[in-house]
Amino acid sequence: MWKGRFAQDTSSLVQQFGESISYDWRLYPHDIAGSIAHARAQKQAGLLTDEEFSSIEKGLKEILADIEAGRFEFKASLEDIHMNVEAELTKRIGAAGAKLHTARSRNDQVATDTRLYCRTEIDLLVAAISELQSALLDRAEKYAATVLPGYTHLQRGQPVTVGHHLLAYVEMLERDKGRLSDARKRLNISPLGSGALAGSTINLDRRAIAAELGFDGVTTNSMDAIADRDYIAEVLFATGLCGVHLSRLSEDLILWCTAEFGFVIFSDAHTTGSSLMPQKKNPDVCELTRGKTGRLVGNLMNLLMAVKGLPLTYNRDLQEDKPPLFDSIDTLKLVLAVNTEMIAAMEIREERALAAASDPMLLATDLADWLVKQGVPFRHAHELVGKAVAESVKTGVQLDQLDLTKIDAAYNDDAKQVFNLQRALAARTNPGSPSIENVKAEIARWRKG
Questions:
Q1: Closest CA relative to residue 434, chosen from 135, 168, 155, 136
Q2: For this structure, is 328 an active site residue?
């Protein structure tokens, strides 16, 4: 493609070092769609005859079909997807194929291709996240009234329900969808026509090309259009944070399936055994999810480090944007799919969860609230309950079995009414709180919306 300037062939080692076709081949549908739109604009500008355009369009569609059927041979000597497609087109249709690159550069071509790729993959990721949300909602609905401890510092704190706990992850995933959708809006502008960095003296109808490709508009600065990889960074941030959320869910579930907690049972299909210990049933899906999050976060760092010191506009470093992008998309899609399947088959051991939540210490804060309702200032109420807790620990008598009136005159016999788990949950009616009615209403809202 640059033989006029060079007297020597590119070293085979440099070819191996510089090729990207081994991974950017997957841009082929977007590259071909962009080329057809570009060729149509060339025809409208009088650069191609109707016959030449028809030949180009037909040839590109045939190449698309061959790639999808596995009949196309990608060549590392042609470096990337752009030159592989263009060279094959020229081979098939002759001189008209050599006209296709008029008024564009591989720089604006790849920027277009990756935006189209991100747009398509975001739509698939959002759909996959919705599937996982549906699985979580199904479990939340089944266990809407199943009480278990909520934790802070991994210490039992207050009673919640399994439904409320799982809905927290539905909320997180909704924010992940929002970030991806927001990134999609921002990236959906066409850089095609920006050329290598300064546009072209051959002016094609950029807006018509953008409209054909489904873009909302065109970029307004050719240098920024070529150098910009913000949209990839946004996608990688959104996928990374989604991975972090799934890793946190995994950590909860890993704890819950231990003998010490015993709250959850995973199906045999979503666990593994040990090559040595025959009794083991390991939560490998959760552990791998937690581990793969490091890849997702690392891919974001990879891209940011690649672009942080680049002068405008294109530098070959930008070729390194695609491996982390492709890896994050592939990884998150698989993580979402396997977690959806696992969650859908997951069962909660309700009796174990209830037994853990029946510890009267979980209602210590409710006891302080009761004192507040008797007119005791909260800080003093906190102190009085703390004394009751200390007495319980010291004597080994359960908090709900203590004679609280001996601790302070602020207590009376009615205080023990606090130690009713169902009543305590039912009292948590404020929006966002875990009363069973609230949980059911939230599930219905998610189902509807």
A1: 168
A2: no
CATH architecture of 359-418: Orthogonal Bundle (1.10)
* 8-state DSSP, 220: S
Catalytic residue (one of 38, 153, 165, 181) = 153
Q: How confident is the model at residue 3 (pLDDT cuts 50, 70, 90)?
A: low
* Active-site position among 11, 22, 267, 274: 274
Q: What is the CA radius of gyration of the chain?
A: 30
* pLDDT the model gives residue 2: 57
Run of H or E residues at 264: strand 264-265
pLDDT, tens digit, 9 for 90 and up, residues 176-198: 999 999 999 999 999 999 999 99
Pick the CATH number of 107-355 from 1.10.275.10, 3.20.20.140, 3.40.50.720, 1.20.200.10: 1.20.200.10
Sequence ranges of the domains in the chain? 12-102, 107-355, 359-418
Scanning the structure block, which residue is given the tokens 């969860």? 353
Rounded to whole angstroms, the Cα distance separating 249 from 236 reads 20
**244 sits in which H/E element:** helix 230-256
Whether residue 275 lies in the annotated active site: no
Has this prediction a pTM greater than 0.85? yes
Q: Does domain 12-102 have CATH number 1.10.275.10?
A: yes
Handedness of CA 236, 166, 159, 395 (dihedral sign): negative
CA dihedral of 442, 443, 446, 447, whole degrees rounded to 10? -140
Extract the tokens encoding 195. Answer: 């050329």
* Confidence at 7, pLDDT banded by 50, 70, 90: confident
